[in-house]
Amino acid sequence: MAYSRIAPTVEQDLKEEKMPKRKMSRKRLSAADRSRILAEAKVNNWTAEQIAKRFGVSKWTVYGWRKRKGGGAGRRAPGRQISARGRGPLHEEFRSLLSEIVREEIARVLTSLSQKTKTRRG
To answer: Distance between CA atoms of 46 and 17, rounded to whole angstroms?
Structure first.
């Protein structure tokens, strides 16, 4: 009993040493502000990370703004850019190659299956 008077309990320690709560600051930017920021970023060719640092928001917030605005992907990270002129022909070439590959694979599988069924019957 005498011990409890001298040494405070763990519960008393926790009550006395409450940590101050951190207030999460949350910026609410108007639609006009968001549009202005995205327009400025497009002119300056900024990435989402650069926009986030400059305006104090997360890069995921910037992605959400772009998505809601319908402004496309924005600027890609350096080394991963494909010009608009190169994208169209590349896409068409890919589609034609892919359809050719799929047709060849389907024909190969069907031929393989038909040969297996012939050997089982014969």
So the answer is: 45
Among 37-46, 56-65, 82-91, 92-101, the least confident range? 82-91
Q: Which residues contact 48 (CB under 8 A, 6 or more apart)?
A: 59, 62, 63, 66, 74
Residue at 4 is within a domain:
no
- 33 vs 30, 36, 49, 71, 116, CA distance in Å? 5, 5, 18, 15, 66
Q: Is residue 41 part of a domain?
A: yes
Identity of the amino acid at 72:
G
70 and 100 together in one domain: no
**For residue 47, what are the domain limits?**
29-79
Task: Examine residue 12 and state whether it is found in any structural domain, yes or no.
Answer: no
pTM of the predicted protein model:
0.40
Instruction: Give the sign of the dihedral formed by CA 85, CA 91, CA 92, CA 97.
Output: positive
